[in-house]
Write a structure and sequence with these properties.
mainly alpha, 2 domains, two-stranded antiparallel sheet
Length: 181
């Protein structure tokens, strides 16, 4: 039996001088048996943060793509002839209103979930699993739409110009909840 297993030392020593040394002088971070013993006792190292910061994490996850998508939508509008702009603006307005209505409900649900969490939690609790799946699917669909050549610029302009500001609006709702909590 190893001399490191016979002693009770923490898995990660507090001071560098207290770290166990191997005969060759290299640092030993921990034996697999010790790691397994700590895990079986329910002791895990987690990066806990204040749950208020989850609102900012959610705002960044929704807001950054919102700005990128808005810029792409505005860029797509510059390639469209001016005689078609009036009906594209109406379509953009319809897309914007529908996404704001949908995102407001989703943001309220996620904010209520964050508010119900304990004071210290991890970043993965920002959204439930279903929310992370939604984010991955939406991102994948956006990347797939980028590589489909038959999508007209009118669709890109109206859809992206409606979706982007709605995502930014959702990010502002998360920031508003951060400020008021």
């Amino acid at each position: 039996m190893s001399r490191y297993l016979s002693r009770r030392r923490p898995l990660f020593p507090i001071r560098w001088e207290d770290a166990p040394r191997s005969p060759q002088g290299l640092e030993i971070l921990g034996d697999p048996i010790k790691i397994k013993n700590y895990a079986s006792k329910g002791i895990m190292i987690k990066n806990h943060i204040d749950k208020r910061f989850l609102y900012l994490v959610a705002a960044a996850i929704w807001g950054v793509p919102g700005f990128i998508i808005t810029a792409k939508g505005i860029t797509a509008y510059t390639t469209i002839p001016t005689n078609e702009l009036w009906w594209l603006c109406l379509i953009t307005l319809g897309v914007l209103i529908s996404f704001i209505w949908m995102f407001r409900r989703i943001v309220n649900r996620y904010c209520n979930l964050i508010a119900a969490l304990p004071d210290k939690t991890t970043i993965r609790h920002t959204f439930p699993l279903r929310g992370w799946v939604l984010i991955v699917c939406m991102s994948s669909l956006g990347i797939a739409l980028k590589f489909i050549p038959c999508i007209p610029a009118e669709f890109t302009a109206s859809f992206y110009s409606g979706l982007g500001p709605a995502l930014i609006f959702a990010a502002f709702l998360f920031i508003k909840r951060y400020i008021t909590r």
